[in-house]
UniProtKB/TrEMBL annotation:
Pfam families linked: Sema
Protein name, per record: Semaphorin-2A
A single GO BP: axon guidance
Cell compartments where the protein resides: Secreted
Keyword Signal: yes
Ranges where the Sema domain occurs: 140-621
Source species: Hirondellea gigas
Keyword NAD recorded: no
Superkingdom assignment: Eukaryota
PANTHER family (alphabetical): SEMAPHORIN, SEMAPHORIN 2B, ISOFORM D-RELATED
PROSITE patterns associated with the record: IG_LIKE, SEMA
SUPFAM superfamilies: Immunoglobulin, Plexin repeat, Sema domain
Length: 826
């Protein structure tokens, strides 16, 4: 857990150029700390907020106002416990017009400075700048120390039984269960609320059986020589196929969905050794899919891609022996890729596999054999085998007779495309076999970057129907095979009986598994790409905001997990011409700083499930009110809509404001509250425009516009003597005059997010006329400063207490800005 540093009580003088975070609202003698939105909601329900800057009695009531006092840098004790001003080394604030200052009286000038520091510092939601001195009720009200550290949000749940390396998921919405493979454990996690899962009652212990032999081979006893569950696949009859590393001696099981073992008489033939089905090393990538239908004889079996040797020399795409469950007899022997043949597989890293029609598809990255004469490079691949494949009769008897592979092209288009060569994860929406979504990265040794690309099944099939690629000699370039050299029937096509294929077809297949054409990504460009970022996992959700309307658009929402433990939320849509557009909506810090090791999504429960080596977290997909504090960001999220009457973001329903595509300019203009400010001639005014965004997202094209009778409508150009931009894109207008009156709009990408109406009062401020007036103000100021000193001491005491609590809780807790950040933003 991060150490929390509370803001100290504000001094009576505060800088004009500070964008506030905490505000003190003063309204009819009532003072209370609030956040921006709380302040606004507490004091008014309408869209307008009137802020009046006054030069008269600071204790006066009436309009809501923010008062800042002056702190002397060097001071002495005042009679009666106050402070005597010696000098002002530095101050800032607002100043009355020159005509308010009587000439030749230094004390008068100092006291007028005290009176005049009444700067209206107002943010988008009507809150004032933090550091406002107490009103005439006399006290500073402080936020309770560290209170936000113990506040958990309902939209995030967590499950952990220690550092067990949670790396494989199987989601079963029918049973409301998420099966999680970990070290020596298989968990059945409650899909509705993962926090309700019990580490003992909802788990199966699967200890390794050959630890001593593993250790004798030089592997670590506490990690490599454990049983890491890497494959969880659903079978018929409420059963699961499970495979684990078993201390570098892979082993598999068939169990029931309630995490109980089968009875002895229910033994499944072929189960026991997991070699070829899951890896030896828990750090190796693998993939597997259980296929019930379409196999030879109609027998179910497991298709896998993994490392099949302790030395990692043999990598394989494998289907085990097929058994008749009734007779327990083996009907069809295993099939695999050719051993040690780099044309078939060359040090692959498998990321996914899917049962699609009469094929099983495998996605992986490997050393590019076609590039070997030019150096070493990694390419991404999709491979295809026919489920009916039984191998050849004389050749390829134990190997696939229909194995083909093609390159996957994910690149930024151009005369010289920029390639993202290394696939890291692939996802297919359940029930939709037409499209595959994947994340790619550049090489880890160079300039890092990641991209999301999509591929259609039709484009994959088109590549497999194209030309083959070959290398005539070891020193030759790889070139497409002439059509006249391709035998009939076409190699790689599915047939009823592959053992009937002629030898010339099998010979061609043995030496020509690679296709010439790459599979092009959909729309000829990535969905999203970003530099200095490594994506590791991906899930996708189709969202139709208004399911009752046939005209409602459907949006594709991508959740990409990163090496830093963040989840990037990207939305994609098609315009009227069928062109693809996308936008980064949000970034969640879910497992930061740990890498994300597994991710899945449940549309039924509107939840995202994310794993790291230490824990699982469940994040609500409908993070509307919890994430978006303004109409602009809320309306761009297909899950959400802006309620202009309540001024809040809600899960979308008809009647709420939504503009995901950005084709409705000004959709949020009507919901923007127009803040009214009355300021005195000569003052400096701060107009806040603090749009809250996650850290990796930056504001672009933030502009301020002024509308006045004298100057008309124009965009403000920043300059040091008049208009200054703050760090949070606010605007400071120096020394206002009558020409500065009018409306000020803050726009982000052309959309208004903040608006102010400023009235300049050139007659309000009048000079004091009697010495009693000066003495009264001076006495009030001394009293105010004494209260500040007391509050400062109280803050220092509570800050020390807070740091002590943070140090204690940091030993057992971890930062998660989704639910621990005070403003819930990253």
């Amino acid at each position: 857990m991060r150490n929390t540093v509370l803001a100290p009580p504000p001094p009576p003088l505060y800088s004009t150029y500070f964008d506030a975070r905490t505000v003190r609202c003063i309204h009819h003698h009532h003072e209370q700390h609030h956040t921006h939105s709380q302040c606004d909601a507490h004091h008014h329900n309408n869209d307008d907020c009137t802020v009046t800057t006054r030069c008269d009695d600071p204790a006066a009531t009436g309009s809501k106002r923010r008062k800042l006092s002056v702190v002397p840098e060097n001071s002495q004790e005042c009679p009666g416990g106050g402070n005597r001003i010696n000098s002002f080394a530095k101050f800032s604030g607002t100043f009355p017009r020159r005509s308010c200052l009587p000439a030749g009286r230094t004390l008068v000038m100092l006291l007028l400075v005290v009176l005049s520091v009444v700067l209206p510092v107002v943010n988008c939601d009507g809150g004032a700048g933090h550091g406002v001195a107490g009103a005439n009720n006399g006290g500073y009200v402080e936020i309770p120390c560290c209170s936000h550290q113990f506040r958990r949000k309902e939209h995030v749940h967590e499950f952990s039984c220690g550092r067990l390396f949670y790396r494989s998921f199987h989601l079963d919405e029918g049973r409301d269960a998420l099966y999680v493979g970990a070290m020596d454990r298989l968990f059945k996690v409650n899909l509705r609320n993962i926090s309700e899962t019990d580490c003992e009652k909802n788990s199966m212990k699967l200890d390794p059986t050959s630890v001593s032999m593993c250790v004798s081979r030089g592997k670590s006893e506490n990690f490599e020589c454990r049983n890491h569950i890497r494959v969880i696949q659903p079978m018929s009859d409420n059963r699961l196929y499970v495979c684990g590393t078993n201390a570098h001696n892979p082993k598999d099981w068939v169990i029931y969905g309630n995490l109980t073992h089968l009875q002895r008489q229910e033994h499944v033939p072929g189960i026991g050794s997991g070699v070829g089905r899951c890896p030896f090393d828990p750090n190796d990538n693998n993939t597997a899919v259980w296929v019930d239908e379409g196999n030879p004889g109609g027998f179910a079996g497991l298709y896998s891609g993994t490392v099949a040797e302790f030395t990692k020399a043999d990598t394989v795409i494998f289907r085990g022996d097929l058994y008749n469950i009734t007779t327990k007899r083996r009907e069809y022997p295993f099939k695999r890729t050719i051993k040690y043949d780099s044309k078939w597989l060359d040090k692959p890293n498998f990321v996914g596999s899917y049962d699609v029609g009469e094929y099983v598809l495998f996605f992986f990255r490997e050393t590019a054999v076609e590039y070997i004469n030019c150096g070493k490079n990694i390419y991404s691949r999709v491979a295809r085998v026919c489920k009916e494949d039984t191998g050849g009769k004389n050749l390829l008897t134990q190997n696939w007779a229909t194995y083909l592979k093609a390159r996957l092209n994910c690149s930024i288009p151009g005369e010289f495309p920029f390639y993202f060569n290394e696939i890291q994860s692939v996802y297919k929406i359940p029930g939709d076999d037409t499209k595959f979504y994947a994340v790619f990265t550049t090489s880890m040794n160079g300039l890092m970057g990641s991209a999301i690309c999509t591929f259609t099944f039709d484009d994959i099939q088109k590549a497999f129907l194209g030309r083959f690629k070959e290398q005539a000699t070891s020193s030759s370039a790889w070139l497409p095979v002439l059509t006249s050299k391709v035998p009939e029937p076409r190699p790689g096509q599915c047939v009823n009986e592959s053992q009937s294929l002629p030898d010339n077809v099998l010979t061609f297949m043995q030496s020509h598994p690679l296709m010439d054409e790459a599979v092009s990504h959909e729309h000829q460009k990535p969905v999203f790409y970003k530099r200095d970022l490594i994506f590791t996992h991906l899930v996708v959700h189709k969202v139709t905001p208004d399911t009752r309307s046939p005209l409602s658009s459907t949006y594709t929402v991508y959740y990409a997990g990163s090496m830093e433990g963040r989840v990037y939320k990207v939305v994609q849509w098609l315009d009227g011409d069928g062109l693809s557009h996308s936008q980064l909506l949000d970034v969640y810090e879910v497992t930061t700083p740990e890498p994300i090791t597994a991710i899945n999504i449940s549309p039924k429960h509107n939840s995202l499930y994310v794993a790291s080596d230490n824990r699982l977290r469940q994040v609500d997909l409908l993070l509307c009110n919890g994430r978006y504090d303004n109409c602009l960001r809320c309306s761009q999220d297909p899950y959400c809509g802006w309620d202009k009457d309540a001024g809040t973001c809600r899960p979308y329903q008809p009647g709420l404001l939504q503009d995901v595509t950005g084709l409705t300019p000004g959709v949020c203009d009507a919901s923007i509250g127009k803040k009214k400010m009355i300021v005195t001639w000569g003052q400096s005014v701060h107009l806040g425009c603090a749009v809250k965004l996650p850290r990796p997202i930056t504001l672009k094209d933030v502009t301020w516009h002024h509308y006045s009778k004298e100057k008309g409508k124009y965009q403000i150009r920043y300059r040091a003597d008049k208009y200054i931009e703050t760090n949070e894109h606010g605007l400071v207008v120096l020394s206002v005059t009558e020409q500065d009156a009018g409306r000020y709009d803050c726009k982000v990408g052309g959309n208004i997010v903040c608006s102010y109406n400023i009235t300049v009062d050139a007659h309000r401020c009048a000079a004091p006329s009697r010495s009693n007036d000066y003495q009264k103000v001076y006495s009030d100021w001394c009293h105010e400063f004494e209260k500040y000193k007391m509050a400062m001491k109280s803050w220092e005491r509570k800050q020390a207490q807070c740091l002590n609590r943070s140090n204690i809780s940091a030993q057992t807790s971890h930062a998660n800005d989704i639910y621990q950040s005070p403003n819930r933003f990253l």
